[in-house]
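Q: I'm building a small set of examples for a reading group on sequence design. Run inverse folding on the following structure and report the sequence directly after it, with nothing in between.
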C-alpha cells in the first residue's frame, strides 16, 4: 500500500493516516516530522529548512521536495506508506512522482477526503493536538475528546491548540488550499488513482469509508 491522503486543513488526514498505518503496518510520512528530524540530524535539507524557519519564512517547495527525496533515498525507505501533508502543490506532486519512479515505487491510490469549508471551520475551533515528536495525536473536544481533559491519551503529554486554528485564520488557509492543493485532484484523477471519500462523518465512519474504498480497489 502506497497512498496519499488529500483534503482541506482540519479534515482529519493526520488522524486517519495514523490509524490506517497502524492497522496495515505502513509508515505514516508527515512533512512536519520529517522537517524536525532533518533539522536535528543536520541533513542538507535540514540545514536549508533551518535557515528558512529561523528567518520566519515558509519552507519552499524545493526544500520540502529535498526532505522527501532524502527520506526515500535512504536504505530504510518505506515500501508501504501513507503520505500526510505532502504533496500540497502540483510542483510537489510532479517532484514526488519522479522520486518514487527513481526508487522503483508507484502510488496505489490518492484518497480525497471531501469536506465543506463551513464544516472545517466548525471542526477546527475545537481541535487540540499532542506536541510530542513521534506521537502527534489529535483530539476534538466534542467528537474525539481525550480520556483526561488536556492530556494526550496515547503518551500523557499536555495538549496544545495551534494559534492558526482561529476561525479567520482557518478561512485564509482554506483559500490557499483551494488555490494550491485542489489542482492535485485532476492530476491524480487523470492517473486513475483518485479515490473520493465523504469526510464529514465521525472519525470511525470516515475511517470505515476509506477502508471500504481501498478494499474495493484491492488495496487492503
Amino acid at each position: 500500500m502506497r497512498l496519499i491522503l488529500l483534503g482541506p486543513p482540519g479534515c482529519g488526514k493526520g488522524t486517519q493516516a495514523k490509524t490506517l498505518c497502524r492497522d496495515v503496518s505502513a509508515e505514516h510520512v508527515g512533512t512536519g516530522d520529517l522537517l524536525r528530524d532533518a533539522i536535528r540530524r543536520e541533513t542538507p535539507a535540514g540545514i536549508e529548512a533551518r535557515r528558512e524557519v529561523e528567518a520566519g519564512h515558509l519552507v519552499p517547495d524545493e526544500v520540502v521536495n529535498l526532505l522527501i527525496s532524502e527520506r526515500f533515498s535512504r536504505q530504510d525507505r518505506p515500501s508501504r506508506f501513507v503520505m500526510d501533508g505532502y504533496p500540497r502543490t502540483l510542483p510537489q506532486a510532479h517532484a514526488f512522482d519522479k522520486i518514487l519512479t527513481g526508487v522503483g515505487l508507484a502510488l496505489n491510490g490518492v484518497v480525497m477526503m471531501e469536506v465543506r469549508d463551513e464544516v472545517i471551520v466548525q471542526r477546527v475551533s475545537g481541535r487540540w493536538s499532542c506536541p510530542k515528536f513521534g506521537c502527534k495525536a489529535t483530539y476534538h473536544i466534542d467528537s474525539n475528546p481525550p480520556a483526561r481533559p488536556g492530556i494526550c491519551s496515547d503518551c500523557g503529554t499536555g495538549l496544545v491548540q495551534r494559534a492558526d486554528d482561529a476561525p479567520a485564520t482557518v478561512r485564509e488557509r482554506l483559500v490557499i488550499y483551494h488555490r494550491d492543493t485542489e489542482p492535485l485532484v485532476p492530476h491524480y484523477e487523470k492517473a486513475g488513482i483518485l479515490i473520493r471519500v465523504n469526510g464529514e462523518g465521525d472519525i470511525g465512519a470516515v475511517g470505515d469509508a476509506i477502508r471500504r474504498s481501498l478494499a474495493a480497489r484491492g488495496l487492503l
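Strands lie at 2-6, 27-30, 81-84, 109-114, 127-129, 138-140, 194-198.
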